[in-house]
């Protein structure tokens, strides 16, 4: 989990090169004889699970991302085994290196938690020599990922047409705030996307303003979408031999995650949304999907209820779902066995106008126990509930450590820190979760080993100023 030794890295690089050659060979000609099955695909590996390399071994990513959306995508690809080379502006690097800094002089958690398992090289993309190096990288990478403001990549001279000419196999993947249309030129951050994608207008309480969520569905959510687009394009390239553009607009990504609210928008035409508590409270619906507080987004009513200690602990709550098949068990547990047969409570439609009273009654019961006691009791009866876990509790949860979802890594300047490992578990591709690189840590290594520059050429490049900060060049001049 911690940083790899140089020897290990060299070994895995050699393995990556070998498997890259293998991928190219597979695409180029049909495997024959013993190595191939009848359908032309390789025979199933006989290696033990998890020892047949990683899913994206041999894929090299030119990572031109910054802040959160793009880095989320490339970090996932790195966890899956891709060689991710992050290009950073000399001197400063990704702006998040210094944003929300908690340890003086060290890269922030904002940066370190989004850039694990990558290599970092500094290049001034506007310097002539820097452009030359970038073009060489374009020729030997499989995917370029970027999330600059609209037009920035083109202004660097890296239009899709130019990239495609340099390397027809290159996949060019971008996150933008909006897709083509009236807002395509806008710069966009997380909360702008949450608002434009329909999440904010449908989040919060009916009598309050729109709310943004704590989960970064605009940034990290779009990064996830982009990663899927990239692996799909890599798969298509095996057949077509050529790359393509992949575009994920943050507005689209948020809308995709908020699709149940567009579902409800259309249902409104047929009448009130009966599972929303506002229906039971007799509040008329307007023209658009309303905010629904903590109502469940599905067909089974749910709400957040207080548990023992709620007066002192802001997270002493539990999400409680009154799933129809376990209604009888709920009635018994909360001391209302008569509700099982009472026509006002016995069926889901009868309960809809009474949800407030039902949840108030259940809450009287949940308040007698801690959220974990409620969870334990309800689970015995198959009643779906979810304790509201604080980030402190999540950081300490042993099962999340055991599965590699929460990982502790070591860092040379900030010491140990927690990061979120790969939430996508592949049975034959163990996640490769390593610390984030220091700014330009792998500049020499990439110039030498990936681009084949000699030691003298590397020295000349450095002297040209293409890899150093503008202020330093000015001082030198
Ligand atoms: N060398 C030289 N210049 C570099 C460079 C390098 N290695 N890397 C970046 N730059 C330059 C770019 O060329 C650009 O210059 P230009 O505007 O003169 O062409 C400049 O740095 C800044 O890029 P930009 O993307 O505009 O950064 P920003 O800080 O002004 O805006 C965002 C940040 C996130 C708002 C914007 O990038 C954006 O809207 N991105 C798309 C949506 C997105 O991903 N948003 C979520 C972010 S989590």
Model description:
- By secondary structure, this protein is α/β, with parallel strands linked by helices.
- Helix 2 (69-79) links the parallel strand 1 (60-64) and strand 2 (83-88).
- It has 20 helices and eleven strands.
- The protein has helices at 6-28, 69-79, 109-112, 128-140, 152-155, 160-166, 190-196, 219-240, 250-257, 259-267, 277-280, 327-333, 348-351, 355-366, 371-380, 391-396, 398-402, 443-450, 455-464, 470-476; strands at 60-64, 83-88, 119-122, 143-146, 171-176, 245-249, 302-306, 317-321, 385-387, 406-409, 417-420.
- It starts with 5 loop residues before the first helix and ends with a helix.
- It is 38% helix and 11% strand.
- The model is unreliable at 1-33 and 472-477 (pLDDT under 50).
- The structure holds coenzyme A.
- Coenzyme A is lined by residues 67-70, 87, 89, 123-126, 147-149, 152, 155-156, 175-177, 187-189, 219.
- Residues 67-70, 87, 89, 123-126, 147-149, 152, 155-156, 175-177, 187-189, 219 line the site of coenzyme A (COA).
């Amino acid at each position: 989990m911690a940083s790899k030794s140089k020897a290990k890295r060299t070994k895995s690089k050699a393995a990556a090169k070998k498997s890259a050659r293998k991928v190219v060979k597979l695409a180029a000609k049909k495997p024959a004889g013993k190595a191939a099955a009848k359908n032309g695909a390789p025979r199933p590996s006989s290696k033990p699970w998890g020892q047949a390399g990683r899913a994206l071994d041999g894929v090299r990513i030119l990572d031109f991302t910054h802040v959160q959306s793009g880095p989320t995508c490339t970090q996932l690809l790195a966890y899956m085994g891709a060689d991710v080379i992050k290009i950073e502006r000399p001197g400063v690097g990704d702006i998040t290196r210094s944003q929300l800094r908690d340890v003086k002089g060290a890269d922030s958690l904002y940066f370190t938690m989004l850039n694990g398992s990558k290599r970092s090289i500094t290049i001034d993309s506007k310097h002539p020599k820097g452009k030359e190096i970038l073009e060489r990288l374009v020729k030997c990478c499989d995917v370029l990922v970027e999330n600059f403001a609209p037009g920035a990549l083109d202004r660097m001279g890296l239009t899709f047409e130019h990239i495609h000419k340099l390397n027809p196999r290159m996949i060019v993947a971008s996150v933008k705030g909006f897709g083509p249309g009236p807002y395509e030129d806008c710069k966009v951050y997380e909360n702008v996307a949450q608002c434009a994608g329909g999440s904010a207008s449908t989040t919060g309480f009916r009598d309050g303003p729109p709310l943004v969520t704590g989960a970064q569905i605009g940034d990290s959510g779009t990064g996830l979408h982009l990663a899927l687009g990239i692996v799909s394009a890599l798969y298509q390239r095996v057949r077509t031999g050529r790359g393509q553009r992949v575009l994920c607009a943050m507005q689209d990504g948020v809308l995709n995650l908020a699709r149940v609210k567009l579902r409800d928008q259309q249902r409104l035409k047929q009448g009130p949304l009966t599972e929303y508590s506002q229906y039971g409270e007799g509040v008329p619906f307007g023209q658009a999907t309303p905010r629904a507080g903590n109502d469940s987004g599905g067909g089974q009513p749910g709400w957040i209820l207080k548990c023992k200690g709620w007066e002192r602990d802001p997270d002493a709550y539990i999400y409680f779902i009154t799933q129809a098949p376990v209604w009888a068990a709920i009635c018994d547990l909360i001391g209302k066995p008569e509700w099982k047969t009472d026509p006002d409570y016995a069926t889901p439609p009868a309960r809809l106008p009474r949800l407030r009273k039902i949840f108030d009654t259940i809450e009287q019961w949940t308040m007698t126990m801690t959220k974990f006691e409620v969870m334990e009791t309800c689970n015995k009866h198959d009643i779906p509930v979810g304790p509201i876990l604080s980030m402190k509790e999540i950081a300490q949860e042993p099962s999340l450590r055991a599965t590699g979802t929460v990982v502790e890594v070591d860092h040379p300047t900030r010491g140990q820190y927690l990061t979120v490992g790969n939430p996508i578990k592949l049975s034959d591709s163990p996640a490769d979760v390593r610390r984030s690189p220091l700014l330009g840590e792998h500049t020499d290594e990439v110039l030498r080993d990936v681009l084949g520059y000699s030691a003298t050429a590397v020295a000349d490049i450095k002297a040209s100023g293409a890899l150093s900060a503008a202020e330093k060049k000015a001082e030198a001049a």
